[in-house]
Design a protein that fits this description.
The complex is a heterodimer of chains A (133) and B (213). Chain A has 133 residues and is of the alpha/beta class. Chain A has a single domain, classed as CBS-domain (Roll), CATH 3.10.580. Chain A has 6 helices and 6 strands. In chain A, helix 5 (89-99) links the parallel strand 4 and strand 5. Chain B is mainly alpha-helical. The longest helix of chain B is centred in the middle third of the chain and has 34 residues, at 105-138. The radius of gyration of chain B is 19 Å and the shape is elongated. Classes of the chains: A alpha/beta (133), B mainly alpha (213). Chains A and B meet through helix 6 of A and helix 5 and helix 6 of B.
Chain lengths: 133, 213
């Protein structure tokens, strides 16, 4: 897997403000048929976060909390794991394994998030490489 | 195993070689279209047409050889059908190159990145289709080639939505007249249909492989 992460990353990032409610996030996840949202920093000192279906189920719905009353900022995972766009896929896999995560974000030189690589992107890449041989 | 079904005569070998040439021509045409998009060079669009004409000639040769007696009779229509499916990809490539000549370049620039991505995927899909055809003749793993082509086709579907969204929100695209709009619509439609056809051709190869088992 010689490719760089920038060649397989998904650049369509869905974001949400940390002041939004969990219910807003649920609606976005269902409408867009995705499994995670990038939580934007509140200010320049704050970090990016991520809210996943897993967060919502275990931290809100399974606890019988009201998703309309809970703010995204309270359940988002922070800080996120982000790599530079020149990182190779092998390194991404190691990061996923080491941190037990399903997605890694990609940042540019200004530390802005520009993409996302998920398990599925890596699976697709491995299968395509295999077929090319 | 295929020798048992396909025969191993000179004519059969010749047909298989010609089909490979035909698929290589398709690959060259997709590469040519990618060059057009990257360099925004109108003259290069004629290269797609020339390759399409070359492929048309190859197609006639292949079909004539098949009906001259190559392969067992029940395999002949299947091979011809595979060639005819692939021919549709040439038609879309030609249409796409033709529409590009009349496409306003300032509007094209708004979707250039996506168009190059699709053109690049088309090239990769063609290369895998050739591998798929070789896998069929060598009795190799055709299933994994077919899966890779399906993965690529899903990627094109996603990019197609991005192109539509960009064009719908483009101020420049809102100002075009009927004919310019028709050209844009046909250009996008033909561009994203190429991968559909390659997927159909790959599926057909897979079915052909299964039917020979």
């Amino acid at each position: 897997m010689e490719k760089k992460v920038s060649e397989i990353m998904n650049t369509k990032l869905e974001t949400i403000s940390s002041d939004a409610t969990v219910y807003d996030a649920i609606e976005r996840l269902i409408d867009k048929r995705i499994r995670s949202l990038l939580v934007l920093p509140k200010d320049s000192k704050d970090d990016y976060g991520v809210v996943t279906v897993r967060n919502i189920i275990f931290k809100v719905l399974a606890q019988k909390l009201d998703p309309v009353k809970i703010k995204i900022g309270n359940i988002a995972s922070k800080p996120i794991i982000a790599v530079s766009k020149d990182t190779n896929i092998e390194e991404i896999l190691n990061l996923m394994l080491k941190n037990n995560i399903a997605r890694v974000f990609v940042k540019n030189e200004n530390n802005e998030i520009i993409g996302l690589v998920s398990f599925f992107d890596i699976l697709a890449e491995i299968l395509i490489e295999k077929a090319k041989k | 195993m295929l020798e048992k079904f396909w025969g191993s005569g000179k004519l059969e070998k010749k047909v298989l070689e010609k089909i490979k040439d035909y698929l290589n021509t398709l690959c060259s045409a997709t590469q040519c279209l990618k060059e057009v998009f990257t360099k925004e060079y109108i003259e290069e669009t004629y290269c797609v047409e020339n390759l399409e004409r070359e492929a048309d000639y190859l197609k006639r040769e292949i079909i004539s050889m098949i009906y001259e007696g190559a392969f067992l009779p029940y395999i002949r229509p299947n091979l011809c059908a595979f060639i005819e499916i692939t021919e549709k990809a040439f038609n879309y490539l030609k249409l796409c190159a033709f529409d590009f000549r009349y496409f306003k370049l300032d509007i094209y620039k708004e979707i250039k990145e996506e168009c190059i991505k699709v053109a690049d995927i088309n090239v990769e899909m063609c290369q895998i289709l050739i591998k798929g055809f070789e896998a069929l003749t060598k009795k190799d793993n055709l299933r994994e080639k077919n899966l890779a082509i399906r993965i690529y086709e899903k990627k094109v579907d996603d990019i197609k939505l991005d192109i539509s969204e960009k064009l719908r929100n483009s101020e420049l695209a809102k100002q075009v007249n009927f004919w310019e709009g028709k050209t844009i619509a046909e250009f996008v439609d033909s561009l994203v249909s190429i991968s559909d056809i390659i997927e159909d051709a790959s599926d057909y190869l897979y079915i052909l492989d299964l039917s020979l088992k």
